[in-house]
Give the backbone structure.
Amino acid sequence: MVETVRARGYDDVRQVGHYFRQGVLVAMDLTEVAEDEARQLVDFAAGLICARGGDMERLSPRIFLLVPAGPTRPDATVRRPEKTAAEPAGSS
């Protein structure tokens, strides 16, 4: 499960922390936040990751995925389906 937090300002940081501490992946959308507040939100998220473990990945210039440490953490590599005998060798 991924919770999306569309921040409107720094006050929305509470929601990000709440979900992350519960072990939920958080998509932090900063597209509607002023540049200085967006920087503060990213700094908060980086501190949260450092203190509680996990990882943060940039999905786009202003959208970040916060991944808590633990069993909810998805694999870092993207798995592609294996080709079947019915598929031509050159298709992808």
User: Anything to note?
Assistant: The beta strands are 2-6, 25-29, 54-60, 63-68. Residues 76-88 have pLDDT under 50 and may be disordered. The radius of gyration is 17 Å. The CA atoms of residues 82 and 88 lie 12 Å apart.
